[in-house]
Amino acid sequence: MALARPLPMTGSIFFDARGDDRALRVSWHHDVDLVVVSLWRDNVCAGSFRLTVDEVPELIDMLRRGLDAAYAVAASREDTHPLHVV
C-alpha cells in the first residue's frame, strides 16, 4: 500500500462521514486519459480504481440521478412534515 502523495493539479479529497482518518481521493491523469478513485485510511492507500475518461460521463450521470432522487425524497419529507417556525 502506498503512502499519500500530493494530488495532481486536478483532484479532490472527500472525507468519510465516519471520521477524518478515512477519505476518498479523486484525481485526473490527463496524460493517460484516466481518473483514479482511491480509498485512503490514515494517509495509506487501501485501494484504487482506474476509470477511463470515456467512462466518466456514465459515472456522473449515475451520481446525478441519485442526487435527484435524494432531493425528491427530502422534498416529500418536507411536504408531509413541514417545519413550524415559532
Write a concise keyword list for the protein shown above.
86 residues; alpha+beta; four-stranded antiparallel β-sheet; 1 helix; flat
Notes on the structure:
There is one protein chain. The protein is 29% helix and 40% strand. It has one domain. Strands 1-2-3-4 form a four-stranded antiparallel beta sheet, with no helix packed on it. It is flat, with a radius of gyration of 18 Å. The chain is α+β, with helices and mostly antiparallel strands. The N and C termini lie far apart (54 Å).
Q: How many strand elements?
A: 4
Gross geometry? flat
Briefly note the structural class of the backbone.
Answer: alpha+beta
Quote the beta fraction: 35-45%
**Order of secondary-structure elements:** EEEEH
Alpha carbon gap, first and last residue: 54 Å
What is the CA-atom radius of gyration, in angstroms?
A: 18 Å
Architecture blueprint of SSEs:
Elements: E1 11-16, E2 19-29, E3 34-41, E4 44-52, H1 56-80
Outline of the structure:
By secondary structure, the protein is an alpha+beta fold. The protein has 1 helix and 4 strands; from the N terminus they run E-E-E-E-H.
